[in-house]
Write a structure and sequence with these properties.
It is a single chain. 80% of the residues lie in helices and 0% in strands. By secondary structure, it is mainly α. Among the domains are: 68 residues, no CATH class; 103 residues, no CATH class. The termini are far apart. The N terminus is likely disordered.
Length: 271
């Protein structure tokens, strides 16, 4: 009976230990997933102030804890008659979320990410023109060396320079990986097309290289012009929205001002 009881206790202990381990692994996985989601958006935004997903989650947790102490715990300890403001830590927690669509933090990071994406794509079109000019400057019998072309022109750019540096660092060891890395770091179908062009240009003659790059000239030219029009339209819409909101505030202020004058006049006449 003793051995049987001991065996049951051991089995129960193992079950509890196993269950605890599963819960710990689940919590760890959820934290890593949340950090990964944050890191993904922060990476697109270029890691503002050097903050990655893990650091962001630490900062977020710290801010929430401090706000909870200041607005909830401290009032209860100093003056129990005061209402504990739990709403503020909750608002901060939700406001600093990178997953919720209505979160100001997500809006801000998305705006930064979109701005950086636009700049990367703009520089990519410029890089296409630079690449074409470099090919035209080659001698008649000179062979194209993609590594040297990119190495010489990477310093001209501020937003795709990392993609270009990554490209040339991989080029001599794995050309396919270099091509994929270039398109993934910049993003978009045009980056993929340009990566394919770079891959095909290497070790070709000047005439063949110009033929390859000219085959995509119309697509890149049309896409660049289309993006310019879209950006112009976007800026115009932002200006209209700004002036619309400003005018609405002025109108509301004027109405309230007139109402206050009317109320003051009525009160003075009653007196």
């Amino acid at each position: 009976m003793y051995y049987s009881l001991t065996s049951i206790n051991q089995r129960e202990k193992y079950r509890l230990r196993f269950r605890k381990k599963l819960l710990e692994q689940k919590e760890s996985f959820e934290k890593k997933t949340e950090a990964h989601k944050s890191d993904e958006l922060l990476a697109l935004a270029g890691y503002p102030l050097g903050v990655n997903g893990t650091r962001f989650q630490i900062i977020r947790a710290s801010v929430v804890v401090v706000s909870f102490i200041l607005f909830t715990i401290y009032p209860l300890l100093t003056n129990p008659a005061l209402d504990a403001q739990l709403i503020y830590p909750v608002m901060i927690y939700l406001g600093m979320s990178t997953e919720l669509s209505f979160s100001p933090t997500r809006w801000m990071l998305s705006a930064i990410a979109n701005d950086k994406k636009d700049k990367r794509l703009t520089e990519m079109f410029v890089f296409y023109d630079v690449l074409k000019s470099e090919l035209e400057s080659l001698g008649p019998g000179q062979e194209v060396n993609v590594y040297n072309l990119i190495k010489d022109s990477s310093s001209l750019f501020n937003h795709i320079d990392l993609a270009l540096i990554r490209f040339i660092s991989l080029w001599k060891t794995d050309t396919h990986m270099a091509k994929k890395s270039f398109s993934s770091l910049i993003g978009g179908e045009y980056a993929e097309t340009l990566g394919e062009i770079l891959y095909r240009l290497d070790r070709t003659s000047k005439a063949e290289a110009l033929r390859i790059i000219e085959s995509e000239a119309e697509v890149f030219s049309f896409s660049h012009n289309e993006r310019q029009l879209q950006q112009g339209s976007k800026k115009k819409n932002i200006y209209f929205l700004f002036f619309g909101i400003t005018n609405a505030f002025i109108i509301v202020w004027f109405i309230l001002f007139v109402l206050s004058l009317a109320l003051d006049s009525m009160n003075s006449s009653n007196i």
